[in-house]
Amino acid sequence: MNEYPSILLENAVNQFASLPGVGRKTALRHVLYLLRSPEQDVERFAEALTKLRKEVRYCRRCHNITDQDVCPICQSPRRDQKTICVVENVQDVMSIENTGQYNGLYHVLGGIISPMDSIGPKDIEIDSLLARLEPEQIREVILALPTTMEGDTTNFYIYRRIQNTDGFADRIQRGEFKISQIARGVAVGNELEYTDEITLGRSIVNRIEFTA
Question: What is the structure's pLDDT at 147?
Answer without folding.
Answer: 82
